[in-house]
Fold these 2 entries.
Entry 1:
Amino acid sequence: MKIGIFANDNRRSQEVKRQLEIKFHERHIVMDNQDPDIVITIGGDGTLLSAYHHYIENLAKIRFVGVHTGHLGFYTDWRDDEIDDLVVSLQSDNGQAVSYPLLDVTVQYTDHKIEHYLALNEATLRRIGSTMVTDVYIGGELFERFRGDGLCVSTPTGSTAYNKSLGGAIIHPDLEALQLAEICSLNNRVFRTLSSPMIIAPNDWITLVPGKGSDFLLTIDSDSYHNKSVARILFKVSKKRIYFAKYRHNEFWRRVKDAFIGDDYGD
Ligand code: NAD
């Protein structure tokens, strides 16, 4: 079993990385950042997202483990003072894994070029300078003409990220669903949108067909692509998944509670 380490530049993350390298060396654990079986990320959710995109071609064979050096993250459930326990878990690894759904995004540009992306959290299409007008199709049927700042399509694990700030629901990652959430829709007597987040079934798909414009902003997780002339975008649940090494059970709703509610209920 070969281990890769992917750390952010933060001083504490680099320190934890050095400590892990020493422990691996002492225990003859093989390190390989080129062709790893397990990738340990050290930092925050952003670091895990970067590692995911770095190793995106090898998702089927890699299991991720997230160590956080800041506050508890959604993909990073090992504290940086638990690395001794992590090393013991790695030494007794028997391939245990948990996997989560990913979002498949196909963008067709007005020059007919086609690009594919695979998002772990979400993809958004936005227009900054003027209203984004976009026809929204669900499963090939025209559903509505959206006007506003943009639209966000998220995965279940991404439902606690940008989607949550947009008022979207939190979806348990055992459900293979996509969520469509609006970003500042225009609603009045003339223009109407559903104005509620929608949960899309795994056998359905979402298509956005924007009106004319060459100034769309497309985001895929932390990456942004500016000034794009988008003809249409298709979103569906990917056949690929992301795998995490499951050395201990961190129940999803407990994680949501720890991140957003805490134990202090006030008076
Ligand atoms: P970042 O790495 O600084 O992350 C921003 C915050 O989002 C961090 O607190 C991180 O812990 C949290 N986060 C990331 N993924 C999460 C998840 N699945 N569940 C709960 N929290 C999560 O910022 P970045 O690298 O620019 O973007 C990474 C992600 O940040 C994006 O995929 C997006 O979901 C999120 N984001 C959220 C908002 C918002 O809520 N208004 C705005 C921009 C980006």
Entry 2:
Amino acid sequence: MVSILSRKPKVQPSPAVGPVGAFQVAAPAVITAETALTEGRSPQPNAAVPIIALNRVSKTYANGTPALLDITLTVKRGSFLFVTGPSGAGKSTLLKMLYGEENPTAGSICINGQDITQLRGDRLAMLRRRIGVVFQDYKLIPRRTVAENVAFVLHAQGYSRKEINRRLPVALKMVGLQDKADRFPAQLSGGEQQRASIARAVVGTPPLLLADEPTGNLDSDNARQVINILRKLNSIGISVVITTHDEVMVRQLSYPIVQIRDSRLHTLR
Ligand code: ADP
């Protein structure tokens, strides 16, 4: 069994991610993930229940392609974990199972203490709302502005106009896009589009953020900026799991790393 300890290396914010620094304020006595995002505080840890617990998970696609084999993994709340492996290793498959897009062929997957493989309908939808997801290709709505793309998630979840107006500027400031709220995705660089997609993923204050190759389309400067934003989100208590094939980048940082190789999970650090 692979157990990932909740490690919080000291974050050195990149100057390029300056606005995120405005998020840091003194921690009060009682803190939730909610206040973490809206007021810049660290959430109260509930260490008893791991944020992710996979038990003997295997996945074979319907066409017979074996993607993952007998994976057991525990990720503690507040962790920052890199999942590496070559293209086609099964990294996306793992993440898709974590947010309920794919079902395992065998084994159980608990997110925040709930077995996602047993949930259907509204209960599955509710759990998925508590998971932020970031994709390599951003998946922004082209005909909507940055602000509309981010607010859309909150609209869909039934937040009031007042609450949306409260959360939106905080999320945009956190990714340094407060001055580009009215731009359309095509008017942004790749790095800015990815930062917009991160704002969209976290504006609902999920305890868990999954990022599937978030730096895959970015140059090294923008990649570093995106990773620093994800580190900053982790430092305020959001558990973060990132897939990447860029082992050079992950080895430069001091976070836990697992690798998928030959369909199996190996702990590298
Ligand atoms: P990675 O993200 O590491 O590049 P993937 O999880 O996308 O790898 O893919 C793992 C394996 O599963 C690959 O052999 C891939 O071709 C296969 N695969 C992925 N999605 C499907 C699918 N929907 N149907 C069949 N095979 C798939």
